[in-house]
Amino acid sequence: MGLTVGVIGLGRIGGFHADTLTALPSVDELVVTDANPAAVATTTDRLASARAASDADSLFNSGVDAVVIASATPTHAELIEKAIAAGIPTLCEKPIALSVSESAEVVARVADTDVPVTIGYNRRFDPAMAAARTAVDAGELGFITTVRSTTLDPAPPPAEYIAASGGIFRDCAVHDFDTVRWLLDDEVVEVYATGSNQGDPLFAEVGDVDSASILLRFARGTIGVVSVTRYNARGYDCRLEVHGSTDSVVAGWDPATPVRNMQADCAFPAAAPHRFFMDRFAAAYRAELAAFCASVMDPSTNPTTSAPCTAHDALEVSLIAEAATRSVDTGRPVPIEEIRDMLVPAR
Known about the structure:
Layout: E1 3-8, H1 12-22, E2 27-33, H2 37-46, E3 50-52, H3 56-60, E4 66-69, H4 76-86, E5 90-93, H5 100-111, E6 117-120, H6 127-137, E7 144-152, H7 159-164, H8 168-171, H9 173-184, E8 188-196, H10 202-205, E9 211-218, E10 223-229, E11 237-244, E12 248-251, H11 277-280, H12 282-297, E13 309-310, H13 311-330, E14 334-335, H14 336-340
Parallel strand pairs: 1-2, 1-4, 2-3, 4-5, 5-6, 7-10
Antiparallel strand pairs: 6-13, 7-11, 8-9, 8-14, 9-10, 11-12
């Protein structure tokens, strides 16, 4: 007997998750809802195993075994809390909430329950990135000197998304922050970030930047370098480099890497470039959802590829994003403890 899984939010990523879940052997049925009735109708017409719920409350009361939250960010905190109250295992897309303080409040409530809550940082389930983590854990690289994570979007998101995203650090770079923190199993202690705007003036109008670089100082001495931009017309470029005292490894350097190699005697990369995160990380999303469903069916199940992102992990990532935002605003390095001190009432 397979699972009945609820999906709240059927936009770009929610619709993709619905398709992925339907293809999993552990899932028998979907219950779906969205603020836009047309999105619900489109999904139930496309997927024979999907039935509609009128709203999130109806979905929580429909007998679902688990829920995937892929709705707009401002709804995440309330929906996570409703799922906890209903005792339903939950996978919620990042972030937990719009603000660090609200995220901390949700994390405190999650800590008081046995209901499992996973936050959707899918790169942990990318096969090459998981292999890099295994190599680091095994000591194959010696001590880690530098880790570099790159996310280059092919084009900016829609204007309404930019205005409500919370900025490039909270929306885009958080994936890189989670990846390097998870990879090293170490904490960031200081953040320095800088950014610029050369494209659409809307970014500056909403207090954001369209390109940024971030230096992360880790507790054990590793330096993290994160690069992000909204403008990379050649394709969606997401890769990881890990440099150690005895070896170096990379992930994301594949035949579809969207770069033009200027070495005359080298044909790499030879394939059509990745165009978007959903084709680049299709396998990672599938593995993430499969691991989530497996854990719902058997809570003792250990993921075979990677450990999922906990609510606590996601809060630590939010602290890094908040420090990067403050660093750009002030032009100085920002200690993580400076941001954590803001959360004293919520601890």
